[in-house]
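Escalation from tier 1.

The customer reports that the assembly of two entities below gives different structure tokens on two consecutive runs. Tier 1 could not reproduce it. I'm attaching the input and our single run for tier 2 to review.
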Amino acid sequence: MKVIVDREKCQGHARCWALAPEIFHLDEEGYITPGDIDVPEGKEQIAGRAVRSCPERALQSVNG
Amino acid sequence: MATRQRVPDHVPPEKVSDFNLYSSPDMQPTPFGDPFAAISRLHEDGRPVFYSPETTRDGDGAWIVLKAEDQRNVLQNSDAFSSYRKIFSSAIGEDWPVIPLEIDPPEHRKYRSLLNPLLSPQRIAKMEPFVTAKAEELIEGLKARGTSAEVMTEFAFPLAVSVFLNFLGLSDDRLMEFVGWADELLHQGPEQRTAAAHKVLGFLDDLTEQRRREPTDDFISFLVAAEVEGRKLTDQEVRAIAVLLFVGGLDTVATAIGLDLYYLARNPDRQQELRDNPDLMPSAVEEMLRAFPSITPIRTATRDIELQGCPIRKGDLVSCPSMAANRDSAEFPDPDVIDFRREDNRHVAFSYGPHRCIGSHLARREVIIGLAEWFNRIPPFRIKEGTAPVTFGGFVFGVENLVLDWS
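Tier 1 run:
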């Protein structure tokens, strides 16, 4: 599973980071660091929840 | 007597509603009220966007946007919907933006980049011991005084404001005076608002002058020394940032704590759920932020644009009550059910878009710690018999006269 990050849309709510800090990393301003994310095996469920908890809909999950 | 046109000509009559965020029955001060349920019922009206005459505190009309997806489109699109409307300076007959809230992107970005690191989730973690100690001190203090307390003035405001003053580097000697200023600015009529605006500015200008002469490690000293784009901030920029952060931190966190305790006091089973599952607190607070948010972002259309069949004209105000989007069933299944374990809770208590509340991470931690300490130290509580908490709508929703009893 991969998470596609639309960094333009990230506004620093940091809900993804609150749920799964080991998957989603923030820069020093509190925005998500750029680049799509390869979700480690076994972390799909929490990553999916984090994607759905983004108020801005800046994250999207794709299987693959 | 009003010369202001009540409803502009371009607004179709079928889009005009009697509802108004200030004076509709459920928005007015109401003993044991539930203004959130009243807002939720607006979704049944079948008009996702409607025009509400006199729905701002200045008595202007505005388009009210109910659905989460539409609010997201408005608040993310600062090209079409500007946030500049002299929210503070109009009170003193001047014309300047508070920063960063009333600066539109891309210029807005440089100010956020300066301020974001101070309030990032990572940085907030360092403030937690202060929040915990303050909450403990306040709760132990009111426990020593008896088995009931008016929690807004004895707990919620003193906690939220002293944490914020600590962030700004100010002592809390004048705490209740500042709370009074916030009340006059946010909840009272035009004359009191003007007087309060002058008091806030006078206080911040004096403080800035002192910090210029003798810098400390506080927030104002940071601003005075700060640079954007290779230059120092101007005096006006320092003032416009200081005003926003000062006012923004005074009222909203206390309101959230108050609204949560108001709900919990009337729902003993939900108190028990939290006592049985203390780990549930962060998720419960998130859910109560969804169910009982207090703010309504307002934007000004920069061009003619249609939204849900409504002809918004350049210059029209567009109002996005967070409590409406947060009760949108298209975004949240069973939106009126308060579920402490709700997943995918992408609520809008802190707004959407580039102006997402810069204090949101501090606010969350304060509410979570404040309630957790309350539950650790206070047995099951209820509204004190013979008293009646009063809820209100308007610019910032809230509750007052919240006397809780745990005898």
